[in-house]
Amino acid sequence: MSLYEFQGKQSRVLGGAFVAPEATVIGPSCRIGHGAVIRGASLGSHVIVGMHAVIHDGVTIGADCVVISNLEIPAAKMIIGAPGKILGDVSEEERAAWDWGLELYDGLPSCCKESLRRL
User: Fold this and answer.
1) What is the pLDDT of residues 12-65, one digit of tens each?
2) The domain that contains 49 carries what CATH number?
3) Is residue 103 a part of any domain in this protein?
4) Which of 29, 32, 48, 75, CA to CA, is 20 to 30 A from 84?
5) Contact indicator for 70, 55 with CB cutoff of 8 Å
6) Residue 47 belongs to what domain range?
7) Is residue 80 part of a domain?
8) Is residue 85 within 8 Å of 79, Cβ to Cβ?
9) Residue 102 falls within a domain, yes or no?
10) Any domain includes 62
11) Backbone CA torsion sign across 72, 15, 98, 85
12) Does residue 10 register a pLDDT over 70?
């Protein structure tokens, strides 16, 4: 499977996740949670797929979504439950919190490398 950077933005596929290489498109700045499975789906930019979520063939997910279900979801919606239901719109505060959290999460490896010491 190949992942590409686009205009300086990268997506992350976390440990234990499986993304089928055939017909799967992941937009920039997405996060695929630990143990998630994505097969033949299309994800817009800045989509977060929760841990152990399964996204099946033919699913299209709009930008700025948090996903844990097999639905076609418009942009900027909050999804909850299994099966997932649209809870409402993603607020500007939630989007800012995601950006902050993703930046913090992405910085953890270097922080650990710089400060970890054997006791």
Assistant:
1) 888 888 888 765 778 888 888 888 888 888 888 888 888 888 887 778 888 887
2) 2.160.10.10
3) no
4) 29
5) yes
6) 12-90
7) yes
8) yes
9) no
10) yes
11) positive
12) yes
Q: Select from 29, 28, 26, 32 the least CA-distant residue to 13.
A: 32
> pLDDT digits over 51-108, tens only?
888 887 778 888 887 765 455 677 888 877 656 778 889 899 988 988 898 888 888 8
**Structure-token pair, residue 64:** 């700025």
**How many domains is the chain built from?**
1
- DSSP calls for the chain: -----BTTB--EE-TT-EE-STT-EE-TT-EE-TT-EE-S-EE-TT-EE-TT-EE-TT-EE-SS-EE-SSS-B-SSEEEETTTTEEEEEPPHHHHHHHHHHHHHHHHHHHHHHHH----
Cα distance between residue 33 and residue 94, in whole Å: 18
Which tokens go with 47? Answer: 């989509």
Residue type, 64: D
